[in-house]
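Sorry to interrupt, but I need a hand with the structure work. Please put the record directly below this note.
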Amino acid sequence: MFKLLKKSPTSARIGLGIILLNVFVCIFAPVISPYGETDVVGDVWEHWSAEYPLGTDHLGRDLLTRLFYGARNTIAMALLITALSFTLGIVTGFLAAVTGGWVDMGLSRLVDILMAFPTLILALMVLSILGCSAPVLIVVIALLDCTRVYRLSRAIAMDIEVMDYVEVAKLRGEGLGWIMGHEVLPNALPPLVAEFGLRFCFVFLFISALSFLGLGIQPPTADWGGMVRENAGAITFGILTPLFPAGAIAFLTIGVNLVVDWFLRRTSELREAV
């Protein structure tokens, strides 16, 4: 791993550094935060000072503390949703490609129906009816996002499924689960890993957008998208408070994309070398 990082371009190292910084903040947020997540410690929208390094928000809470806890809540939820959507999408996509027939037809038509609706509008409708609790938010976004993963994994699996080694496995009498796990999945990993990073960015931004609209992570839980919405009025008075959570969102998105771009280039070079 060290040799791989040593050979990586500067952009990939910067991206990895951004990701590791956010991971550190997520894990140690309660330790490095100067105050509690919901503690009101000063006046509304106080300026930067030694006591409040980034000032305070619209309720007088320390903004730096809210940023640390917001990273923990937003990134953890985005990672959980992405993992769940990938599990559903990969399993159903591989199943449709390997099985074929009515299974492929039924799953593909169901995915087409879900993808026919704009994702944000459909999510807003469902969340308005079912509520905005964390379990509902996770399940709804994961189901909507797994449709994209399904299309990709199905397309990749259909190319792999016709290979000779898969046919040999079928002739040996291997089961469907064994073929999907031992033959299809290992050969589909590079594009799926890259897609995981891209889908994480999408989910991360999607959660922030929902929170900005008031249907994402609910107050008083810290969330970067919600922090932008709550402090948007500060711009009118020339206060930069909402720019900090907005910048944190952009900062992490850029970091993940830098690593994903390097990974895609590296896997492409390996395929060309082979």
Q: What stands out?
A: DSSP finds ten helices and no strands in the chain.
